[in-house]
Amino acid sequence: MSTNELTLTAEKKRTIALKITTYVVSILLAMLILSPFILMLYQTFGEEIKMVNGAGDNRYLEIKPRDHIITWKEFKGLFSEGDFIGFKNSMIVTCISTFLNIYFSAITAYAITAYEWKLRAAFEKFIIVAMMVPATVSTIGFVQMCYKYHLINNLIMLIIPALATPMTVFFMRMYLKATFSRDIVESARIDGAGEFRIFNQIILPLMKPAIATQTIFCFVASWSNEWVPRIILIEGESRTLPIMGSYQGSQLLMAIPPLILYLFLSKYIVEGIALGSVKA
Amino acid sequence: MRNKNHIERHYTKWGYIFIIPFVVVFLIFNFWPLASTFYYAFCYLKHAGNTNPEFLPSIGKPLFKNFTEVFKAKSFYSALQNTFLFFLASTIPEWILAFWLAVMMTDRRMHIKARFIWKLAFFFPKLMSGGILGVSITSTIVGFVANAAGLSAAAMSMNGFGLTEKDMEFVLSVKFIIIVASILLHFGITFIYAVAGITGIPVETFEAAEIDGANRLQTFFKITLPSMRPMLFFITVVSVVDGLGMYDIPSLFGAYDTTRSNLTLMMYMNNQAFQGSYAYDKASAVSLVMLAIYIVAALIVYFLLLRDKDEAKFKKAIRQERRELKRGI
Q1: How far is residue B272's CA from residue A164's CA, in Å, rounded to a whole number?
Q2: Which chain B positions have a beta carbon within 8 Å of A144's beta carbon?
Q3: What value does the mean pLDDT take over residues B284-290?
Q4: Are A220 and B127 an interchain contact pair (Cβ–Cβ within 8 Å)?
């Protein structure tokens, strides 16, 4: 009995030591990671940037701390017109492409899981292969296609391709494999529901955690995407936020939507579902 | 039974219907560009906005001219080297950090509080990774790393641990700073997916391991990792795709560095195609090289992680049996 107690306390001691280490490491990492953002907030709200006339015709930017709380007029001055055009374009591209990505990935994953068609296994293999070859490899072909069919400056070229994202399909498939039950579908069929309706009204709500997780990742990927937009969006009117805008205003506009989305969706992120216990 | 089969067959057509949008868009926007990139690698296609590829043999030039040009360039080799260095040197510590933290956060015995805040904090850089904001955040982190490296180097040399400047060269180099910054910026993704994977494992499994007297390390390698294999595969793919295609952080140090210490394959391709030379043909050749690397990496990952050895053996046995049956008939 006494030896047992001894080992228990040793185990407890080790647990406490590990706990402290974890907290310290996490706090340090969090501080390191969050400090740039706080610095940015300070620069936006606490500092003034002025164009100052120096000796001769020279002009230079002077940065000095504000002596008062930022006023509404000054706040408005942080944004340029381009910021709002960029924000609007980014919003259009990101929202539509995220929706298309999530919905069609879910339906593709459902098609693989629920129906036993002939090419099913081959199609699943194909998804896995396609997922490991990122679209960036074919950038040249993509851009050439835009040149050829005069789709430069067209936001469509950023929206439609998001519909086919193998990585999202794989994730959804992984989730469906763990949670899908044929009985629900069959009972819905007996009640006379069509296949589309079964998917929209029964399967989609079941996939909420997977959808939430992937929505965050797709939204962020599309929102901060500048690899292709930099090349194909040349006109100012069609540019998205990451590649245009003033310094301070666009920083703020850039930061807000992903943050709000994350705060809304984070509680649905996949957790506690038997996701890992199934073979892929 | 026959009736049920009939019903199933009636529904299978929906499987095809549901994948039509995916397949069509994939063929047009992914497969077609890839195929044309393949073709351009064997063509003459230079100058900005040129959309008229000329097949190399038809203008009297050797078929593999673009490839030989690429393989002759010294900068290509430094790009190749850097890409692999950055990928390996950042992925391994990142994984150790992310998995360690994920295991600690999900350990039932430790009751780590405020998991929500940690997740948000670690995922933050990725959340904010776009445009000027991403640049300023990345450069702040880069600046911090550089400062820390410089200070520790100075402290060490003053204290005289027998260290000379040469020993500290690597720590002060651009490469080291890129590696550390990319670990910090990327490990949140791995962390979130790892937590999702670990929490998916039934609690009873861990309890059983605990009762059997397994320590934490044993539990991790013998239970946690094998139980989250699909997730592990997913995490690996994300790491490989992001790591080999690394672009944003290295490009902060300038597109043309004479020592080429920050050049990655992605940057090399970008420089060839969309900056200065506008050599789309050469860039296509580089893309194909990258494609080959991705395929090799994919095969390695697939056979290491996703393929179930027992299942493969089982399938093989079934196939053999069938063949023998056919022969018998």
Answers
A1: 28
A2: 33, 36, 40, 45, 51, 280
A3: 92
A4: yes
Q: Is A266 on the interface with B (CB under 8 A)?
A: yes
Kindly state which CATH superfamily the domain B76-303 is placed in.
MetI-like (1.10.3720.10)
CA separation for the pair B88, B31 (Å, rounded):
29
Domain boundary among A39, A69, A99: A69
B237 to chain A, any CB pair closer than 8 A? The answer is: yes
Question: Which residues on A lie below 8 Å from B283 (Cβ)?
Answer: 140
Q: Looking at chain B, which residues constitute the CATH 1.10.3720.10 domain(s)?
A: 76-303
Predicted complex ipTM exceeds 0.85: no
Give alpha helix (H) positions in B160-258.
165-172, 174-199, 203-211, 216-219, 225-227, 229-244, 248-251
Give the residue from A21, A144, A243 with the most B CB atoms within 10 Å of its CB, the best one to mutate.
A144
Full residue range of the structural domain in which residue A60 is found = 2-69
Q: Are A19 and A134 within one domain?
A: no
Contact A274 B202 (CB under 8 A): yes
Helices and strands (H, E) in chain A, number of each type: 13, 2
- For residue A261, is it within any domain? yes
- pLDDT tens-digit readout, B200-229: 788 888 888 888 888 888 888 888 888 888
Query: pLDDT > 90: what percent of chain B?
Result: 14
Residues on chain B touching A147 (C-beta within 8 angstroms): 49, 51
Residues A42 and A106 occupy one common structural domain = no
Assess whether pLDDT exceeds 60 at residue B281: yes
**C-beta atoms surrounding A211 within 10 Å:** 23
The reported pLDDT for the residue numbered A271 is 59
> With bands split at pLDDT 50, 70 and 90, how would you rate the model's confidence at B185?
confident
